[in-house]
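Anyone up for a design puzzle?
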């Protein structure tokens, strides 16, 4: 049995999970609502505030789907209760970010500012002009948006300038050495 797939998901107070006949899982919580379609070969049981996942047989694709869908639903439960966030740092002279409403404006050394629009249920924060926090309830959307922001100016290995994740370590290279 899948190590991840066999773990039960306990539902906190204020979170409701509904599974319809087409295996569409809808999770509602204090921060919002998320939905995910689950493979029909994976059965979901809800008993006394606990979700458990089982599969029909032990084929290799079934084993993979078992852990995958359990992890996706668990992330949905965490998202509607706590939410997810990614912190990015802008390293470089004059690099700055500004969040206004649902837009994020980056000035990272180009001749023009780069503007990102926030998708639904995602927000930007800039506590310091060199820091961007992407917050939302959907882990995949938050991660993809943070990766798109990082891709505007990825960190380079010689000076370390660019946009990097807060906990990311940039491997530095030695430059030219003169005699």
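Challenge accepted. My sequence:
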């Amino acid at each position: 049995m899948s190590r991840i797939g066999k773990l039960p998901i306990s539902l906190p107070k204020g979170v409701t999970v509904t599974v319809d006949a087409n295996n569409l899982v809808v999770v509602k919580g204090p921060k919002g609502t998320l939905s995910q379609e689950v493979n029909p070969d994976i059965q979901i049981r809800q008993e006394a505030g606990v979700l458990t996942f089982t599969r029909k047989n032990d084929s290799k694709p079934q084993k993979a789907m078992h852990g995958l869908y359990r992890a996706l639903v668990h992330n949905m439960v965490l998202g509607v209760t706590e939410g997810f966030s990614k912190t990015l740092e802008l390293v470089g002279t004059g690099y700055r970010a500004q969040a206004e409403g649902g837009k994020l404006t980056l000035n990272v050394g180009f001749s023009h500012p780069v503007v990102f629009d926030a998708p639904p249920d995602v927000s930007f924060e800039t506590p310091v002009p060199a820091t961007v926090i992407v917050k939302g309830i959907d882990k995949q959307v938050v991660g993809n948006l943070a990766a798109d922001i990082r891709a505007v100016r990825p960190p380079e290995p010689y000076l370390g300038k660019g946009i990097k994740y807060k906990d990311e370590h940039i491997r530095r290279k030695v430059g030219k050495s003169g005699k």
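A detail worth pointing out: The CA atoms of residues 105 and 115 lie 5 Å apart.
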